[in-house]
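REQUEST FORM: STRUCTURE PREDICTION
Request ID: SP-0412
Submitted by: Lab K.M.
Chain count: 1
Length (residues): 494
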Amino acid sequence: MTDQEERILRKNIDEVQQNVETMQEMKIYNAMKRGIVEGKNREKRRIYTTGMGVVAAAAVALMVTYNTIGLPNKGIAQSPVQSVSIKNTDNFKAYRSFSRLEPALASALEQNLVVPVGESAENKGYRIDVTGAVTDGRKVYVLYSVQNNTDEVVIHADFELQFEGIKESPLHKGASLSMLASESRIQPGQSMDFIYSTNLSPTIQYPKKVNYNIVLTETSDKALLSSSNKYRTSLDVAFELDPDMLKAQERMLDTDGTLTIDGQKIKVTEVQYTPLSTYVDLAYDENNDKQIFQLINPVLISKYEGVEEKYYYPTLITADNSEVYSDNSKATLVFRKSEKIVKSKPDSVSLKAFGISAVEKDQMKIVVDLNKYQLIEAPGSGLELVTPTTEDNVEEGEIFLRRNIKNAQYLERSTRLAETFTDAKGKVHNRDSNTPSKSSFSSYTTSKDGSAVNEFGYNFGTEAKNYPQPLTITLEKYTNPIMDTQAVELYSKN
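STATUS: Completed
RESULT:
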């Protein structure tokens, strides 16, 4: 394995280790809401993963599951009592020693930027202690512990940060919960530490007063599958968190630079340096003929007195993984924090990318004939309709597709198909979303040479063969690398 491959693999594995436990919690919450039948069907859902595909599937499962939950159930008739916390934070020692912290939070702890909160709430034998929090106005972290003083094993059913005066803070989608333990269940008499994080919108002026809410649920089959709230306990902690707490230490570079890749214009609207991270805000030109999903291996290059400082492997904020954006016309690249920017402005800043993952807007569809089991139309190249075997366990009305992708090592690994499809006469049909075992599956396998194989399926339903053929599925997200190395200067002192 090359150094480059190892860095990418390590980055992805760390992301999953931080978040994978949350998937279990969110599935449990779905089970509570859907009941026994839906719960059992959901467990049958087929997700095939091998190699690094495990990473992609886990990340996608977290996002999809969390999005289906919606906002927490506020109908739990309980009255938590808030008080000053007596828990000793010990300068956040437990968090400092945690090996899988997000780089931004690790940096905040290293710089002693996490502000002690010291507020707690108790209800029905459970206690939450919010020990600390930090935000740079773009990302927020809340550090807290849960003490279980009951005889029941419990797990998070939901969690949410609300800002006072904002009816529904745009924070729920993409929120993450990490735990400083190997599993998320809180045993009787035990305490466990957690990290909540989410992205904030740069266009909203958030107030200082916030409320952090968690919902705990017992884990017996009866509790998980019950529609009654008697098995669930809500805990709320109100405290102050200044969204401008690090403003004096940030730098903003306004830019009108436009990166043009494969003829597609990507405007860089702003570069923001904070003590936690470096944010590069992008806007895709509405006149582009392709839908852009991501830049391929973007690199932010800053020069200080002739010495280059390069930032690689950013995370991506989009409308898919956050409510910061309402559509796919904008995105933000999040790089690690700069070591020098807080001291002085750079001589120059530029953004380089090796291509884009994109599809022509009028080709965002897959067209198949179920009766002929034939692929009629698909974007790009390399997609084939695979004849299933008995081992594939393909159901009536389901198709199985495979795609070979070159230059896949830097790509977000996900294919997402619409929940509706259209027959040859233009009638729109809803896929049975209440039967998750018949929803799409996806696997993603990478090779050392940078290529990948993406396998995914789509179940139209048993009646679909009787519809006028062919059938058209709209693509919501598709991996399609277009290699074209380009760069643009964003800022210069001269």
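NOTES: The longest strand covers residues 348-360.
Reviewed by: T.R.
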